[in-house]
Amino acid sequence: MTSPRIPLAAALAEGPVVLDGGMSNELAADGHDLSDALWSARLLRDAPDAVAAVHRRYYAAGAQVAITASYQASFEGFARVGVDRAEAEELLRRSVTLAREASGSAPERWVAASVGPYGAVLADGSEYVGRYGLTHAQLRAFHAPRAEVLASAAPDVLAVETIPDVDEAAAVLDAVAGLDVPVWLSYSAAEGRTRAGQPLAEAFALARDNAQVIAVGVNCLAPEEAADAVALAAETTGKPVVVYPNSGEGWDATARAWTGPATFSPDRVSTWLASGALLLGGCCRVGADQIAALAKELH
């Protein structure tokens, strides 16, 4: 009989937990075209088995948390390609189900439902800038319905990730308040600031007294900047810190291509741990091989 899965927050009290890596790069390596505006979310409808295969690959590599393929999934985005609301809800729930089934019901494997930023639905790189010109109420109205649907599929945590500015973070936390699911809050950052330019200390402080937030940190930033951000998150909030940098390559939003050398290395893990990280993995362009090496370094 399978042992019951303990809450992720309780697991973090026992020690570090390994996250997966990028979904899109593994799907692309498997030959899938992700040039559509829905990005990997398109495959929730067109090739769900491919998404499940990537989740299984990461679990096999040593990841303990699978982040769902819902980052770029939204009612607005699906509507643009002819998916009605009922089907969109089913696809959002499917993102959680695929990750859960891939886990094989192992007690030390968890599912994080990705709640990406508003900019992701624009498919133009806006999530790396923020400052969309929307009000708090407009951002809340965008995030609340899909967060509710994702929560209804019973993930272990909502991964509010790649958030570019404090204003959007406040709106998302408002949108998920009252949902019976814990949250991690993770900012996209550069040079000690959010992508919108606010100091990271200010951004992290937003989660300090929010009991629903079980971890706070950064993702999709350069690996060499991660340690300082982790230390600041730990100092500012006193909460477990989540960190999953990208490969270190740069994203050219105009050309929709990655440029420059990769700098992600499992050798950095000890520094992240020493700085306070307890949820560690990779983001864009970090694949199963790197997660396997990271898991080996941790355990």
Automatic annotation (TrEMBL):
Q: Name one Pfam family in it.
A: S-methyl_trans
Q: Where are the transmembrane segments?
A: none
| Name recorded for this polypeptide | Homocysteine S-methyltransferase
InterPro entries attached here? HCY_dom, HCY_dom_sf, Hcy_S-methyltransferase
Record-annotated Hcy-binding domain positions = 5-298
Output one GO MF annotation.
Answer: S-adenosylmethionine-homocysteine S-methyltransferase activity
Q: To which species is this protein native?
A: Streptacidiphilus jiangxiensis
Instruction: Please give the PANTHER family that the UniProt record associates with this protein.
Output: HOMOCYSTEINE S-METHYLTRANSFERASE-LIKE ISOFORM 1 (PTHR46015:SF1), ZGC:172121 (PTHR46015)
Instruction: Please name the GO terms of the biological process aspect recorded for this protein, alphabetically.
Output: methionine biosynthetic process; methylation; S-methylmethionine cycle
Q: Which UniProt keywords apply?
A: Metal-binding, Methyltransferase, Transferase, Zinc
What cofactor is this protein dependent on?
Answer: Zn(2+)
Q: Where does Zn(2+) bind?
A: 220, 283-284
- Report which superkingdom the organism of origin falls in: Bacteria
